[in-house]
Amino acid sequence: VHPNVSQGCQGGCATCSDYNGCLSCKPRLFFVLERIGMKQIGVCLSSCPSGYYGTRYPDINKCAKCKADCDTCFTKNFCTKCKSGFYLYSGKCLEKCPDGLEANNHTMECTSIVHCEASEWSPWSPCTKKGKTCGFKRGNEVRVREIVQHPSAKGNPCPATSESRKCIVQRKRCQKEGKGKKNREEKRKKSNKDESKETRQESKGRAARRQNREQRENNNKTQPKKRKAPNKEQDLAPVDTAH
């Protein structure tokens, strides 16, 4: 072994030197060169740092650099995250998104343009005027719909969600709420009163009939039976004066 090569290294190195750092790594670790000023030092890491991607070989695992505009990548030609000022599209970093796509400044990706979508119109509401449905001839009726898909930055804007139109109804008088309620209350009280009166009259009639019946029965029990009057025609039979 070369005098500058040491077998008792630290930090995951399998072999190392005092001047160049790690020369090889332990199994499953990645070897990468880090620049410190004009000097490059070898280090062994469990995963590759930002701007690098890992490649595994039978003898050594290495970290290779991504493209200059790529922050993280899967391979040299397939980026997974772009550096500031670039937008990711199909593994590439672009300054401007292709036609039919728009730049998403939140994810820094080129995404499909989303247009607004609205639901079907609701049925027309009853014809009203100043919140009332009576006391007028001409009023307004409305219908509404909901937004089911909001648009993206370049998508078509949403349409109106409500419509109004003139309407004509058969004029009718509005019943005052207090008066109508009072009339209903009076009718209810009168109905209850009539029912109570009728019930009392029926009870009095039944009581009177029962009392008359009991009185007749008592009279029949207390009065003596009348004797049968003699037949005057028999008592005044003609006398035979022939003798």
Automatic annotation (TrEMBL):
Biased composition (Basic and acidic residues): 175-219
Keywords tagged on the record: Disulfide bond, Glycoprotein, Heparin-binding, Repeat, Secreted, Sensory transduction, Signal, Wnt signaling pathway
Residue stretches making up the R-spondin Fu-CRD domain: 11-110
Domain of life: Eukaryota
Coiled-coil intervals, chain numbering: none
Chain spans, region Disordered: 169-243
Main location as per UniProt: secreted
GO biological process, one term: positive regulation of non-canonical Wnt signaling pathway
One Gene Ontology CC term in the entry: extracellular region
SMART domains noted in UniProt: FU, TSP1
UniProt record similarity statement: Belongs to the R-spondin family.
Protein name per UniProt: R-spondin-3
Source organism per UniProt: Pachyramphus minor
Taxonomy of the source species: Eukaryota, Metazoa, Chordata, Craniata, Vertebrata
